[in-house]
Design goal:
Among the domains are: 36 residues, no CATH class; 34 residues, no CATH class. It is built from 3 helices and 2 strands. The protein has a two-stranded antiparallel ribbon. The longest helix is centred in the C-terminal third of the chain and has 18 residues.
Length: 102
């Protein structure tokens, strides 16, 4: 029998660790002239991290979902819609075969 994994989530970062990781993206000296703007962006990012805003933009799930009134991430919904459309094309017998040969 398969055993569920436990303790998967890493501990939350400290403010200092978050700052260090965030600023790794701006190591290039060309960013130096925008260090104040980067500091403001880092503060916004920290606020989202600290308040656990995983899905800041949502919309109601709508028909076809177990709970149509549930607030879904718009990014998640867009990805799901693309996958559903790709599956529909893949299963359409009128489309060209896409079989891979070894």
């Amino acid at each position: 029998m398969t055993k569920p994994r436990k303790g998967q989530a890493p501990p939350l970062l400290t403010r200092n660790e978050f700052n260090e990781r965030f600023r790794r993206n701006f190591f290039d000296p060309a960013f130096e002239k925008e260090k104040d703007a980067i500091a403001r962006l880092e503060a916004i990012a920290w606020d989202g991290y600290e308040k656990d805003r995983k899905a800041p933009r949502t919309a109601k799930a709508g028909p076809g979902f177990h709970d149509p009134g549930y607030d879904l991430s718009v990014e998640w919904r867009a990805t799901r819609d693309k996958l559903v459309a790709a599956e529909k094309r893949q299963k359409d017998p009128a489309t060209k075969s896409r079989v891979l040969y070894a």
